[in-house]
From TrEMBL:
Function, as annotated: As part of the replication protein A (RPA/RP-A), a single-stranded DNA-binding heterotrimeric complex, may play an essential role in DNA replication, recombination and repair. Binds and stabilizes single-stranded DNA intermediates, preventing complementary DNA reannealing and recruiting different proteins involved in DNA metabolism.
Start and end residues of each stretch annotated as Disordered: 120-182
One GO CC annotation: nucleus
Sequence ranges assigned to domain Replication protein A OB in this UniProt record: 303-364
Compartments where located: Nucleus
UniProt entry tagged with the keyword Electron transport: no
Keyword check for Lyase: no
InterPro entries found in the cross-reference section: NA-bd_OB-fold, NA-bd_OB_tRNA, Rep_factor-A_N, REPA_OB_2, Rfa1
Bias (Low complexity): 147-163
Ranges for domain Replication factor-A protein 1 N-terminal: 8-103
Family according to the record: Belongs to the replication factor A protein 1 family.
Subunit structure: Component of the heterotrimeric canonical replication protein A complex (RPA).
Full protein name: Replication protein A subunit
Length: 364
């Protein structure tokens, strides 16, 4: 079997720690764990090793197939084709969007004696007669999981490192390069500073409300990048600030402050555990280029396959319109408002058909 150690990109993670992203580095996957996730979205946490350091990471949902197909296993040697760096709770996190498992190298035991990436800088500062101990390769400590307690001096060093990292990212954004774009799929309440580059795939109308607590207005948009999609909502002042700026099919840079909270699935069919709420100071800029930002993403199934789809799961179907029903009107029991409704029948090459109900202006 080929020598796995000889192909590892030794030192690649040290470059990641300084803000560089080596092109297609080769690393070893030394741990795979499923992540607890809201709304049934399947996610996996991984630990990657370059023989000198290790780093915790998250596998993008579009790459889950390497686990489903049995290719990615503990010990696998992988080439990272597309990835991003994040900084969460004083730790570097790798977001792996696309990878290639080099199956010819098998699944060897842990290569080298790697230490946690956060300890690399401490080793350089340690006295010559003191040998720092290797870090513990574990799956905890990010995305809401329990962290081990750190000593005050270590915590101070990590905070200083984080501040340097944040300053570097801020300078990069102001310079126009924005080299550290954050993938939408990795947005959580624990990511404190981020910028996404995303396309507006949906823009809703301005809605007004009146209740006992007052009145107001809101609108929502859906952002899409190569890693996924997320819903964002603006209220009151944010409507005035951003509604005309954000246009469907255009690409924007969006940076926090922007509140991240659990998605309200009853109001949205967007496939993300979280959603955004624009703040007054949220930074939104139109991007000059849209290279690498997809127009749309699909999750196709056949009509026959609907029998195995979970309730409330979002899917896409291609079918032939077999029947168009008449427009009818129903009155909401809660609001007493009338709504237009129409029923369609779709059929595909599996021989099955399904009824589709459309509402409002779409039905008309």
């Amino acid at each position: 079997m080929a020598d796995a150690m000889s192909v590892l990109s030794v030192g690649a993670l040290e470059q990641v720690a300084t803000g560089e992203l080596p092109q297609e580095p080769i690393m070893q996957c030394v741990q795979i764990k499923p992540m607890a996730s809201q709304n049934g979205n399947e996610r996996y946490r991984v630990v990657m090793n370059d023989s000198r350091n290790f780093i915790q990471g998250m596998l993008g949902q579009q790459s889950n197939h390497v686990i489903h197909d049995g290719k990615l296993k503990k010990g696998s040697i992988c080439r990272l084709l597309s990835y991003q760096r994040n900084f969460v709770k004083d730790k570097h996190i790798l977001i792996i969007l696309e990878l290639d498992v080099l199956e010819e190298y098998g699944e060897p035991e842990k290569l080298g004696t790697p230490i946690a990436l956060e300890q690399a800088g401490k080793q350089e500062e340690a006295p010559q007669d003191v040998k720092p101990q290797p870090g513990n390769i574990g799956g905890d400590g990010f995305y809401g999981n329990k962290q081990q307690q750190v000593q005050p001096q270590q915590q101070q060093q990590q905070q200083q490192q984080q501040q340097r990292s944040m300053a570097m990212r801020t300078n990069g954004a102001s310079g126009g390069s924005r080299g550290n774009i954050h993938p939408i799929e990795a947005i959580t309440p624990y990511a404190h500073r981020w910028t996404i580059k995303a396309r507006v795939t949906h823009k809703g109308e301005i809605k007004h409300w009146h209740n006992k607590n007052g009145e107001g207005k809101l609108f929502s948009v859906t952002f899409l990048d190569e890693s996924g999609e997320i819903r964002a909502t603006g209220f009151n002042d944010a409507v005035d600030n951003f509604y005309e700026l954000l246009q469907k099919d255009q690409v924007y840079y969006v940076s926090n402050p922007c509140r991240v909270q659990l998605a309200k699935k009853q109001f949205s069919n967007v496939n993300h555990d979280y959603e955004l709420t624009f703040e007054r100071d949220t930074n939104i800029e139109k991007a000059e280029g849209d290279e690498g930002v997809p127009q749309v993403t699909y999750s196709f199934t056949t009509i026959e396959g609907l029998q195995s789809v979970d309730k409330d799961q979002n899917i896409d179907i291609i079918g032939v319109l077999q029947d168009v029903g008449e427009v009818s009107e129903i009155v909401s029991k809660t609001t007493s408002k009338p709504y237009s409704k129409r029923e369609l029948t779709l059929v595909d090459d599996t021989g099955y058909n399904v009824r589709l109900t459309i509402w409002g202006k779409t039905a008309e």
